[in-house]
Amino acid sequence: MQVTVASTQGVGAANEDTVHVSPTGVVVLDGLSAPKDLPMGCIHGTPWFVRQLGTRLVNLIGDNSLSLREALRSAIAEVNGLHGNTCDLDQEAVPASTVVMIRERADVLDYLVLSDNVLVLDLGDEGIETVTDKRVEDVAADELRAALQGPTGTSEHAARVSELVSAQRRLRNRPGGYWVASTNPDAADEAITGTVALAKVQQAALLTDGASRLVDTFGALTWSQLLDVLRVEGPAALIGRTREAELADPAGERWPRFKRSDDATAAYVRISEPLPLSSGAQRLDRGRRTGSSWRGGERSEGHTATITTAPQEVAAALGIQPGDQVIRRTRIYRDQHGIVAHSTSWIPEVFARAVPELVRGERLSGGTSLDLIARKTGRHAAKRTDITAARITTDEDAKLLGLEPGTEAAILVLSALFEDAQGRPLEFGVDLGAPGRTRMETSETAL
Question: Which of 9, 12, 188, 297 is surrounded by the most beta carbons within 10 Å?
Fold first, then answer.
């Protein structure tokens, strides 16, 4: 994933938002402001709390064996251990934060949202999905309406906000109230979580409520337009536009809110595009150079092997009669976006006795099928013939590539025939590229 972030302070004394990024995850926190006239049981304060919690979260979500809820539970407990001896963690007046985070895991994207941060997911043809937790708006309704009455910046308005925060604290992290990350690890069980196929996600945004308000408070943008701003201009530009709108309504008369400008943090995530299909020649070259034919992040699975009758195309390639016995080996290549290709190797049945590994339904060890054949029979691949074709998926193609029945999509079909020095066929391979796995080759010719 490619991530760009921006975070700016609002009208408070410090920025109580924080954002943390790792190679596979993003965490955004929005610390809950505490009015100066209300007590606080922690001597460290909210900015310290969100930094400590965020640092632990971004480290914990790197462990794919932990669910995001488990990571949040552990992070809260760890931060409790940092100041349990110096601060009163049993009272209502303790630091708290909203949470939104995502994690790439194999070919899926995990997410967690707790309280009113916003996660925006662009799912391509399926549209834009937003995830947020608005339970805080369902409690202390009378105090909430009063706190939203302007003008902001007055002592009367500040008193109404303090009354709201006092009421919300009494309902925080308990049944019938609302939930945030604070000192109670059980809050993790109340978070909204989900998993989506990584191949579906084109881009995403993680926003504190100070950065989402151009859409959900001001109505100046749609979610799609917000993503456009993030993609083209960047997170800092989104926050800049938000500040311009706030300055046009400083007293909160047009857009009622608790303060003129809130801390604002935006993380824009561009999911890397599916890589093109490697040709057999590219895999062979990569294997010779690196010892592995796989690209970074690629893996194979679903290995099968059997002796079966040769289809006409295979028989013609291997110089045998249709219906003759042949070894068929299959596997699926995957990366973080899903299936890359379904690969089939057709090998003359004569090698079954010399190389028994070829008829075992498991990944080969000690090299490729051609390596094993060469080592055990002395017949080395000396010539390779490649054919690249394209077609619309058949029902059988769709089944092999894990597509919905009836799917009609353009795919690449890569075939390769390997022969020894005497021109005798050793293997005929066929790769079916998944939809979208295009391949581009360039060349230069002096004229």
Answer: 188
Strand ordering across the sheet containing 108-114 = 17-21, 25-31, 97-105, 108-114, 192-197
3-state secondary structure of 428: strand
Q: How far is CA 55 from CA 193, 208, 352, in A?
A: 20, 17, 55
Instruction: Give whole-number Cα distances, 54 to 159, 211, 421, in Å.
Output: 31, 18, 61
pLDDT, one tens digit per residue, over 222-251 is: 999 999 999 999 999 999 999 999 999 888
Q: Roughly what angle, to the nearest 10 degrees, separates helices 223-232 and 235-247? A: 120
> What Cα–Cα distance (Å) separates residue 441 from each residue in 249, 258, 319, 367, 412?
55, 57, 30, 27, 13
Handedness of CA 398, 403, 408, 410 (dihedral sign): negative
The DSSP letter of residue 358 is G
Q: Which two tokens stand for residue 39?
A: 């007590």
- Three-state secondary structure call for residue 324: coil
**pTM score over 0.90:** no
The answer to whether the beta carbons of residues 71 and 60 sit under 8 Å apart is yes
Q: Who's near 3: CB < 8 A, 6+ residues apart?
A: 21, 26, 267, 268, 269, 270
Distance CA 31, CA 45 (A): 10
Indicate the pLDDT class of residue 33, thresholds 50, 70 and 90. Answer: confident
Token pair of 359 as six digits: 């008829």
| Amino acid residing at 242 | T
The DSSP-derived string for 60-94 is HTT-TTS-HHHHHHHHHHHHHHHHTTTS--SSS-S
Cα–Cα distance measured from residue 95 to residue 58, given in angstroms and rounded to the nearest whole number = 19
User: What's the residue count for the chain?
Assistant: 447
Enumerate residues 6+ apart whose C-beta is below 8 A from 76: 53, 181, 182, 183, 184, 185, 187, 188
pLDDT in tens, 318-367: 999 999 999 999 999 988 778 899 999 999 999 999 999 999 999 988 88
Is the distance from CB of 190 to CB of 174 less than 8 angstroms?
A: no
Dihedral of alpha carbons 279, 280, 282, 287, sign? positive
Question: What residue has token string 């308000």?
Answer: 213
- Count CB atoms within 10 A of the CB of residue 85: 7
* Residue 131: exposure state from Cβ atoms within 10 A (0-12, 13-18, ≥19): middle
Rounded Cα distance, 409 and 429, in Å:
22
pLDDT score at 148: 78
